[in-house]
Amino acid sequence: MQKTILFNQRLSLLRKQKGISQKQLGEVIGLSNKAICTLENGTRETTFENLVLLAEFFHVSTDYLLGVTDDPAWRGS
């Protein structure tokens, strides 16, 4: 599904732009580096809870991560 591909690509891109490893990202949101790897390569889907944690960490909208919009603007507090 196209949305899954966007999520994987956007997660990987955001992590690399921040200059952190999969292990470092996993430590921040409570997942293993293997779990982050499987999210990035599309063999695993995320939970709502982890989606929100990722959006908060990268300060992007969940809609952006999911591919609903191309506007990454963070609207949280």
Largest sheet: none
Q: Tell me the helix content.
A: 55-70%
CATH fold annotation:
434 Repressor (Amino-terminal Domain)
The CATH class is: Mainly Alpha
Rg (C-alpha, Å): 11 Å
Overall number of structural domains: 1
Q: Report how far the terminal alpha carbons are from each other.
A: 31 Å
- The average pLDDT is 91
How large is the count of helical segments? 5
Q: Tell me, what's the shape?
A: globular
CATH architecture: Orthogonal Bundle
Tell me what the structure shows.
The chain is mainly α and 77 residues long. The chain has one domain: lambda repressor-like DNA-binding domains (434 Repressor (Amino-terminal Domain)), CATH 1.10.260.40. It is 65% helix and 0% strand. The chain has five helices and no strands. Helix 2 packs across helix 3. The longest helix has 17 residues. It is globular, with a radius of gyration of 11 Å. It starts with a helix and ends in an 11-residue tail after the last helix. The relative contact order is 0.18. The model has no long low-confidence stretch (mean pLDDT 91).
List the SSEs and their pairings.
Layout: H1 2-18, H2 22-29, H3 33-41, H4 48-58, H5 62-66
Helix pairs in contact: 2-3
Provide a concise account of the structure shown.
The chain is an all-alpha fold and 77 residues long. It has five helices and no strands. The protein has helices spanning 2-18, 22-29, 33-41, 48-58, 62-66.
